[in-house]
Amino acid sequence: MRMDNERPRRASAGALLLLCLAACGADTTTEDGPAHVAFTVRGRMPDVDPVTYAIEETGGPLAADVFEREIEAALAAWRDAGPVRFERGELGSADVTFGWRSGAHDACPSFGADARIAHTGPTTPGTFVHFDAARAWVPRADEGESLYHTALHEIGHALGLGHSGDPGAVLNAEYANAPAVPSLSDRAALASLYGGELDPAPGDLVIAGDVALRHVAPVGVSDYALLDVDGNGADEVLVWRTDRGGGGALMIYAFAPGPELLSTAGPLWGAVAPGAEVRVGEAVGGERVIVSVYDNGREVARALEETGALRLVTEPVEWRVVASRSQGDVDGDGEKEQVSRRAAR
Predict the structure, then answer these.
(1) Predicted pLDDT of residue 103
(2) Which of 29, 249, 256, 269 gives 20 to 30 Å between its CA and that of 89?
(3) For residue range 326-338, what is the model confidence (pLDDT) as tens digits?
(4) Could you tell me which residue, 108 or 21, shows the higher pLDDT?
(5) 154 is catalytic
């Protein structure tokens, strides 16, 4: 059963919304370990420490004390996984409020219209997590409508994580065999958004010396560059898979001032040809392109649309390489930040 059916969305040119690298890619293994750790993000809770929460105690099929116990156990699991702290707040003013709902309610999609058993509001102070009160809930179980496991998944959404292609992740969309604690991919997503402790890895991209995209650019199976994809004055970080098992997937990471990870778009499958030389640049007409150059000199260009889509360029195109692998103004403040991949251990 699916936890929910939220779909990643693409925001305006100034705010690419979030999804993550290689979210459904094949798991290639190198001498440095797994080729990728899959995660997605859908937003960022702005400067809230601690995150306050409130629990509505009525309207559900489980006793109020059981509801509270499992919600707080799920919050504790996320607290232990990374940099986010939680504190009990008041109804009406908390950053996240948990409650039961049935059928059509508030401005949310109606429960019962599809397979969703819970859903979460946008990642912003004052958001909510709703559980479908018409389901046959149990406090905690490996199968069925487990309140603890569902709360664990939805809290990840409230913190800004999107669905993951990692089958062992809390944020995987499928409920079967859901883990009881956040996985490495879940923690990599959290650390990419908020910092915090996570062992350095060769797949990390370090930006401005202290900001890191964790586990997104594994050595030997990926490459990266910086380019202002949407023309808003800030460079996005582009990461693509170079191995045949990666499907030529491209991921785009956008940043807010700080810099802080703001959003991502992708994975865009087939963006590059595995084994070909990849160049990223700007066409004469202004569109941004990613070009696969084959050994025989043939070039295949794909335009990066502001909507987050790829378009095959069928007519000949004049373009120039403008992307850098070492620096770019990722947060649009007029100053360039250094970008590097963490060296292999």
Answers:
(1) 93
(2) 256
(3) 999 999 999 999 9
(4) 108
(5) yes
Model confidence at 10: pLDDT above 60 = no
Q: Please, which residues bridge with residue 54 across strands?
A: 97
As given in the structure block, the two tokens for residue 273 are: 């040809």
pTM: 0.83
Token pair for 335: 């100053």
| Cis status, amide bond into 50, omega within 30 of 0 | yes
pLDDT tens for each residue of 185-221: 999 999 999 988 788 888 899 998 888 999 999 888 9
Domain assignment present for residue 92? The answer is yes
Q: Confirm if 259 and 207 have CB atoms less than 8 A apart.
A: yes
Assign residue 59 the CATH number of its domain.
3.40.390.10
Using the 8-state DSSP alphabet, how is residue 87 labeled?
A: E
- Is 155 found in the same domain as 80? yes
Report the C-alpha gap between 152 and 71 in whole angstroms: 8
The answer to whether the CB of 254 falls within 8 A of the CB of 236 is yes
Of 159, 180, 214, which residue is a domain's last?
Answer: 159
Domain contains 198: no
Q: Is the pLDDT of residue 35 over 50?
A: no
Question: What value does the CA radius of gyration of the chain take, rounded to a whole number of Å?
Answer: 21
Domain-located, residue 283: yes
CB atoms closer than 10 angstroms to residue 176: 10
Q: Where are the alpha helices (DSSP H) in the chain?
A: 64-81, 147-159, 184-194
- 19: β partners: none
What is the span of the domain harbouring residue 266?
A: 205-341
Among 145, 154, 236, 260, the active-site one is 154
Taking the C-alpha atoms of residue 265 and residue 17, their distance in angstroms, rounded to an integer, is: 6
CA 110-114-118 angle, to 5 degrees, is 65
What is the rounded CA–CA span in Å between residue 165 and residue 144?
21
**How many structural domains comprise the chain?**
2
Residue 14's identity, in one-letter code, is: G
Structure tokens at 228: 């202002």
